[in-house]
Predict the structure.
Amino acid sequence: MQVAKDKVVSIDYTLTGPAGQVLDSSKGKPPLAYMHGARNIIPGLERELEGKTVGDAFTVTIPAAEAYGERNEQMVQAVQREQFASVPNVQPGMQFEAQGPGGARALVTVTRVDTTHVTVDANHPLAGMALTFEVKVVDIRDATEEEKQHGHAHGAGGHSH
Ligand code: ZN
């Protein structure tokens, strides 16, 4: 069986950033199960996996544009410190869920704090980075009808709900 649309694919993976730092890995965890062709994973990695079979292993570096996108400096904003009045001791590195225009929820990261303002960055933490994936395909199966309706994988390594 080959990786194709509507297959549930299980992969072992290690993700490293531009400086070689490990950002995420399935090591010591069950493989990640995702539904191919359903945009469950970043586009560049999905394309590389197309047509692979169980046992295939590869390493690929994906440019930011096909990973989490380029950084957008307009998504960095300084807001009045009073808006964080409910957060005791707000510090750079803290992350908050914020509601963006249109109601979409986004994770923002505090990048700077001074006496009057808090600077928050709504870019994805991995935006602007070329990402290297070391991947091994460990299982491929047909998606169930329910999985196709939901647009994601169920069971081990997938969604549990
Ligand atoms: Zn589901």
Summary: The pocket of zinc ion is lined by residues 150, 152, 154, 159, 161 (CB under 6 Å). The radius of gyration is 19 Å. The CA atoms of residues 68 and 98 lie 18 Å apart. The mean pLDDT is 93.
